[in-house]
């Protein structure tokens, strides 16, 4: 019998679409500026690569925590809260870092939201495990 995980599926799908947008931005830089490998010394391309890399560094573990919590029967409010905060955090971070390599409100708030998801998700996983 299959275990249904519709909340995780929703957030995996949303983050999958966001990942595609981030990859497409890199692809556009590569085509426009004829950069076959690396960043070509292009600051915009460097930021686009870092936005996508930062996404890849943070999102998988956060989604795994949401998955584990859903399988273990955590409340829907917690799951939707974590998933929404993660998605909003990643959008804000991508927007902020995409505009400037310096500090921006989007980057700051996006980072805080992502770290909050990590903290709350990790604590919730530990509580369920014990």
Could you walk me through the main structural features you see in this protein, from its secondary elements to its overall organization?
The chain is elongated. Helix 1 packs parallel to helix 3 and helix 2 packs antiparallel against helix 3. The longest helix is centred in the middle third of the chain and has 29 residues. Helix content is 82%, strand content 0%. The mean pLDDT is 93. It has a single domain, classed as Four Helix Bundle (Hemerythrin (Met), subunit A) (Up-down Bundle), CATH 1.20.120. By secondary structure, it is mostly helical.
Uncertain segments: none
- Over all CA atoms, what is the radius of gyration? 16 Å
The dominant shape is: elongated
Oligomeric state = single chain
Residue-averaged pLDDT, rounded?
93
Helical residue percent band: over 70%
User: In CATH terms, what is the fold-level topology?
Assistant: Four Helix Bundle (Hemerythrin (Met), subunit A)
Question: How is the biggest beta sheet arranged?
Answer: none
Instruction: Report the structural category.
Output: mainly alpha
Number of domains: 1
* Helix/strand order, N-terminal first: HHHH
CATH level-two architecture: Up-down Bundle
CATH class: Mainly Alpha
What's the end-to-end separation, in Å? 26 Å
The CATH homologous superfamily corresponds to: Membrane associated eicosanoid/glutathione metabolism-like domain
Bin the strand percentage: under 5%
How many helices in DSSP terms? Answer: 4
């Amino acid at each position: 019998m299959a275990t249904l995980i519709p909340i995780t599926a929703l957030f995996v799908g949303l983050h999958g679409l966001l990942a595609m947008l981030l990859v497409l931005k890199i692809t556009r830089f590569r085509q426009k500026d004829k950069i076959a490998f690396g960043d070509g010394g292009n600051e915009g391309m460097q930021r686009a690569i870092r936005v996508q890399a930062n996404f890849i560094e943070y999102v998988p573990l956060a989604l795994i925590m949401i998955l584990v919590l859903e399988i273990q029967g955590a409340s829907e409010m917690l799951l939707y809260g974590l998933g929404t905060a993660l998605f909003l955090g990643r959008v804000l971070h991508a927007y902020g870092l995409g505009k400037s390599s310096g500090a921006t409100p989007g980057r700051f708030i996006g980072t805080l939201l992502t770290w909050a998801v990590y903290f709350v998700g990790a604590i919730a996983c530990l509580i369920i495990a014990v």
